[in-house]
Amino acid sequence: MKHAYYITCTDFIKNENGDVTEIHCTYDPATKGGWSDDGRKVRGTLHWVSLQHAVDAEVRLYNHLFNVENPEADGDDFIQHLNLDSLIINTQAKLESSLTDAKQGIKYQLLRNGYFCLDTDSTPKQLIFNRTVGLRDSWGKKQKV
């Protein structure tokens, strides 16, 4: 849907289990490419992958190893500053089917998440991607707090 049109949900229908089964929308044909000449800003952009056509993958999100910039400052033991969330592994990621042709050494942007590369342990039956760079770095924000 990215770079398509501005789409507005006008209604939706749920089944007896409360699951959404239909979404009713309108689109603005003047916004082809996902941009508006009149300067309108959308409140949110939805990025999605068709579950029917998606491929399963493991995605590894690498973050800062330490929670502070200098973990041994003031004579501290660096162990006490380890970031327990420095590696988050999502084993149930759904990716676009075109990534089954991913190659070593090529960088891929997963929208709203960062840039990834194919892991050397990846196989055609078990895709594994490693985040190399996040799109937003919260480190600077954390240091200003």
Q: What do these coordinates show?
A:
The protein is mainly beta. It folds into 2 domains: 1-46, no CATH class; 55-144, Beta Barrel (Ribosomal Protein L25, Chain P), CATH 2.40.240. The chain contains 1 helix and 7 strands, in the order E-E-E-E-E-E-E-H. The chain has a 5-stranded mixed beta sheet with strand order 4-3-7-6-5, with no helix packed on it. Strand 6 (114-118) and strand 7 form a beta hairpin. It is extended.
In short:
It contains 1 helix and 7 strands. It is mainly beta and 145 residues long. The radius of gyration is 20 Å and the shape is extended.
Please give the structural blueprint:
Elements: E1 6-14, E2 20-28, E3 55-62, E4 87-95, E5 107-110, E6 114-118, E7 127-134, H1 139-144
Parallel strand pairs: 3-7
Antiparallel strand pairs: 1-2, 3-4, 5-6, 6-7
Q: Mean pLDDT, nearest integer? A: 86
User: What structural class is derived from the secondary structure elements?
Assistant: mainly beta
Number-wise, the strands total 7
Uncertain residue ranges? none
What radius of gyration results from the CA coordinates?
A: 20 Å
Please tell me the total number of domains: 2
Strand order of the main beta sheet, please?
4-3-7-6-5
Q: Spell out the CATH superfamily of the largest domain.
A: Ribosomal Protein L25, Chain P
Structure annotation, total helices? 1
What is the general shape? extended
In CATH terms, what is the architecture of the largest domain? Beta Barrel
CATH topology of the largest domain: Ribosomal Protein L25, Chain P
The biggest beta sheet reads: 5 strands, mixed
DSSP helix fraction: under 10%
> Topology as H/E string?
EEEEEEEH
**Ends apart, CA distance between termini:** 36 Å
In the CATH scheme, the class of the largest domain would be Mainly Beta
Q: Please indicate the percent range of residues in DSSP E strands (runs of 2 or more).
A: 35-45%
